[in-house]
């Protein structure tokens, strides 16, 4: 069994903490969602023991430093790339939950040669906030700053399949994320650069999606044409915690079928 190593890189003078299991130039790279952290992937431990795996606390999240900067997708993606470079990962399979999906896509756009595949977990092509005007985003940022409104925003993520322990864990982590990160990470004015029509990545990709985000942006398929979508109709946003065995098996099936993992 691969033992865990807690590591960090310095990125824009701030510490980015990550955990590494195993070794080699190929790795599963787990990227958490908005206001979440690597700790939520605890039920993916069986995957960590089978494949070289890295779980990252994005800047501002989990154990990583939280400088007062704009938490743009590009900023967060470049932190992931810093980890890939430090770990000499030339063939990453990115697994991005929710906001971690657009972060993964940005990693793909910035360093396509290092990305062997992407698994999106109840995610989207653009952050939902991208479709808002600046003033709508500012209003949303103000709502997220209010603890009570923030909790009611999260309420739909609690589903019958999620154990109460896991829900407490999620709420604990999400409410302990620094307020300036919580309000900034999805609503910053620093939006990703636009897509050229011909910006296309022929990378294998899988989207495990619940009804919450099933009605996705069809541009996604234009830019990442090999994207496969699998709907989990009875699950909620934290499906990898709700049914970890099924989730881990779906990851294994995708890796095997597309022969993504070289050791
Ligand atoms: C990455 O490669 C460099 C240069 O070959 C080496 O010094 C370093 O130890 C490697 N890092 C890891 C984590 O394997
Ligand atoms: C994000 O943080 C920066 C730096 O602290 C700040 O200037 C900006 O107003 C913040 N944006 C939002 C939407 O909170």
Automatic annotation (TrEMBL):
Q: Which residues form the AB hydrolase-1 domain?
A: 28-250
Family annotation (Gene3D superfamilies)? alpha/beta hydrolase
- InterPro entries, A to Z: AB_hydrolase_1 (IPR000073), AB_hydrolase_fold (IPR029058), AB_hydrolase_sf (IPR050266)
- Keyword field: Membrane, Transmembrane, Transmembrane helix
- The transmembrane segments are 21-43
Entry's Gene Ontology cellular component terms = membrane
Q: What name does this protein carry?
A: AB hydrolase-1 domain-containing protein
Q: What is the lineage of its organism?
A: Eukaryota, Fungi, Dikarya, Ascomycota, Pezizomycotina
